[in-house]
Structure formats: C-alpha cells, structure tokens
Amino acid sequence: MKKLAITLTALTLALALAACGSTAGSSSSTASSGAASSSASSSAQSGSTETVDTSDLTTVMDALFNGIAEDQMPMLMPQEDGSKYAPLTEENSEHNTGVAMSAYKEGLCAEAAMSAQAHSICLLKANSAEEAAKLAEDVAANANPRKWICVEAERTVVAYSGDTVLLAMSYNDLAQTVLDNFKAQCGEENVTVVKDQASADMAMPEGGDVTSDPVAAMPEDASGAL
Q1: What is the three-class DSSP state of 212?
Q2: Range with the lowest mean pLDDT among 103-117, 133-147, 192-206?
Q3: Mean pLDDT value of segment 4-31
Q4: What integer pLDDT is reported at residue 55 of this predicted model?
Q5: 175/154 Cα distance (integer angstroms)
Q6: What segment(s) does the record annotate as region Disordered (predicted)?
Q7: What tens digit of pLDDT does each residue of 42-91 get?
Q8: How many structural domains are present in the chain?
Q9: Which of 24, 171, 177, 224 is a good FRET partner for 5, with 20 to 30 A between their CA atoms?
C-alpha cells in the first residue's frame, strides 16, 4: 500500500508540472502575439502620417486642388495621352511661365480648357534647391497674367519650397486655396512667397473710387463722341 501511495503521489506531481509548463507556454505565446500586434499597429499608424512626395509633380498638383468644389474648378485642357496635366516644354514654357525650359528641370501645367477662363497653375522643378529662389524670382518678374488676351487672372501667386516653384494665375479664391494647400504640403515655415498680387482690374485705384460704368470712366471728349 505504501508503494502504491508513493507511485500515485509521483504521478500527480508529474501531471501538475506538465500542466504548469503548458500554461506558461500559452502565456508566453499570447504575450508574443500581443507584442507583434502592437508593433504592427504602431507601424500602421506611423505610415498614415506620411506627407506628400514632392518629388512627383503630379502628386503635388493633385494635392493643390484639395478642398475645391467640382463646380468651382474650371475644366482643364485635355491631354492627348489621357494625363490630367500638360507637361511644360520648350514650345510652351515661356508662354505659361515667362521663363525658358532651359531654366529648370521639369514642369507641369493645369490650364483651363476655355480661353475665356483665366486659370493656370504651374509647378516647376528647379535644377537644385539653391536655384529655386532665382527661378521663382524670374517667374514672378516675367509670367504674364494676361496671356489669354481677352481676360486677365484676378490674382498671381509665385512661391517656392525646396526645389519646387509654384505659379498660380487664377481667380482670387482659387489662387488662395492653391497657395494654402502648397503650404500644407511643404510646411508653411518652408514656403517663401515671392509674389502675391491682384490684377490691375481688381486693385483699388487711388482715392478709392471704383466705377463699373465704362462710359463714365472715359475722358469727357471721348464720351461725348458716343
């Protein structure tokens, strides 16, 4: 009987030790799984805060139009290859930006399809960040907000950040939204505004008297000839 009791006691202890080992392994596995899950969650959250890649001008251009209602956005000039924006080339660069294509690396233009709508947003990639300031100044000095002949852009904005230069010639509110979005992409502290100017038609004349009557605005001898 004594031997039987000893045997049963030993068997009970062995089973207890086996159960403890199984529980510990399960707890370790659960802890490892939880740590991995936490790490994956942390990585996902980190990835969700990535900023716009400013090396891709199409991505930057897309982001410039964030928050603009579809009915407020002029229809853009369609491209033969189906792309949304027109590339700046040796043939169209000076007309659209005021500077030759040789002054920068690459560029895109979002141009209104109708010439009666003064809307043109251009992005230029300078040859280097060091050259961006000079490029922006040249664009500001030479870009023509009356390039449409019949109409003039209400507002002209030129700004740069890093090696990217923005030229916005458009309606006042659209130009403001585009500038705000450019600052949001690049960080406002990293953006330098070289030019922000309303058109002559939008500017308040000296004395603050604005007239919408074209006849009243004519010289007296000219109005009398009508």
Answers
A1: coil
A2: 192-206
A3: 47
A4: 66
A5: 9
A6: 30-53, 204-226
A7: 333 333 334 455 569 999 999 999 999 988 999 998 888 888 899 999 99
A8: 1
A9: 24
What pLDDT sits at residue 147? Answer: 95
- Residue 172, domain extent: 57-198
Mean confidence (pLDDT) of the chain: 77
**Letter for the amino acid at 3?**
K
Please give the distance of CA 131 from its chain centroid, rounded to a whole number: 21
CA distance 163 to 130: 7
Query: In Å, how far are 58, 73, 82, 157 from 65, measured between CA atoms?
Result: 11, 8, 19, 15
Evaluate whether residue 87 is within a structural domain. Answer: yes
Q: At 190, list the tokens.
A: 């990293």
- For residue 111, tell me if it sits in a domain: yes
Given the structure tokens 């949304």, which residue do they identify?
84
Q: How many CB atoms lie within 10 A of CB 79?
A: 11
Q: Say if 223 falls within a structural domain.
A: no
**pTM of this structure:** 0.67
